[in-house]
Design a protein that fits this description.
Helix Hairpins; 2 domains
Amino acid sequence: MGPVKASPQSQLRLLELADLDAELGRLDHRRRGLPEVAELARLETRANEVKDALVTTETELGDLAREQSRAERDVEQVRTRIEKDRVRLDAGQVSAARELASLQSEIENLHRRQGDLEEVVLDLMERREALDSRQAELATERDTIGAETAAVTARRDAAVKEIDEQAAKASDQRANVAAEVPADLLALYDQIRKTKGVGAAMLRAGRCEGCHLSLNAADLNVIRASAPDEVVRCEECRRILVRTPESGL
C-alpha cells in the first residue's frame, strides 16, 4: 500500500476506532475468560469420571451377583447332599461299619464344604453391599453435578448475553465511525489491526501510546516536518501515529 494521506480530522477518528477495537478486544477476552467456562469444563471432566465409575461399579455388581448366585446354588447343593446322607444314616440304611464310617466322614466333609461356601457367600454379600453404597454415592454425585452444571450454565449464558449486548453496541458505534473514515486510511488501519489488535495510537508527549515507547529525536523531527495530512507511523510498533495538541511536537 502506497503513502496514505488524510485530513487531521479523519486521522483523529482513528483514535475512536482504536478505543472501540480495544473495547471489543476486552469484551472478547472477558467472554473467553469467564470463570463459568472453566467451571463448566471442570464439571464436565468430573461428570465423565463419575459416569465411567458408575459403569465400572455396575459391571462389578453384575459380576458379583452372578458369582453369589453360583455360590448360593453350590451351598444349596451341598445342603441337599447332606440331607440325603443324613436321611440314609437316620433310617439305618447303612449297616456295614466301613460304609457307615465313610458316610459319616462324607457328611463331615460336606459340612466343612458348606461352611467354606457360606463364607464365600458372606464375603460376596459384603462386597456387594460396599458396591451398592459406592453406586449410591456416585449416583448422588452425578445428580449434584447435573444441578451444578445447569446453574453454572445459566450464569454463563447470562454473562455472555450481557457481553454480547455490549459488543453489539460497540460494533454499531465502530461501523458508524468507520463510515466516516476515508477508504484508504481505513484499509491501512485494518491491515495493521489484524496483527496489532489496534491499528492506531496517539502520539502523546513524544511517546507512542500503542507500544508505550518514546520516539527518538530524529523520528520526532521527521514527524514535525510532515504535512498535517500525511499519515505517519511509529517506527517501533508500526501503528498509525495520530498527532494531537498533546503530542509535544
